[in-house]
Amino acid sequence: MSYFDKSKEQVINELLDSKxxxxxxxxxxxxxxxxxxxxxxxxxxxxxxxxxxxxxxxKITNILPPSFQFPEIAEACIWYNDRxxxxxxxxxxxxxxxxxxxxxxxxxxxxEVSYPKEIENKKIPVFLHEESNLLKALAVRLSNFISxxxxxxxxxxxxxxxxxxxxxxxxSKNKNGSLSILKINLQLHKKNHSLRVIFF
Length: 200
Hints:
By secondary structure, this protein is an alpha+beta fold. The chain is about 45% helix and about 25% strand. Helix 1 (about 10-45) runs antiparallel to helix 2 and helix 1 (about 10-45) packs parallel to helix 3.
């Protein structure tokens, strides 16, 4: 049937249908852009060496609500190492979506996004499938970043301990019973983290 053979009512219905499809696609595009921006911000934060682990987590908490479907009422919380980083009105009793932070088989924290309970009255899905995937991806990225930071901190602490032991002097008894100084030089080989002990 050609365009000119259609009734006025058919044309109007088709135009309305097209309008609804365009609105839906526009909404989908807007949501995907927000999710992409979220990933870009996380990359920016985690690649900034001047930011501490806690600062990175706090910044990720702040950019989570704008990344979801209803940013004006979304709230977020990330807890790690018995500490919570949350937006001002976060309420765990609302409508909630969450993902664990995990290193190996050990759960080290959680990412949560919530809405007020009143949002359940809406006739559209509260959390989109893509938002669930976003939270899963962020949980993996943040878990890997935390693992990297923890390893770096552990190595730094070990290096500090070894450096404090460099040129340490110990008292030692000679064969005749008198005390003498035994100087031990501990040298840390960063390449394989081994120690070389030199007595002199």
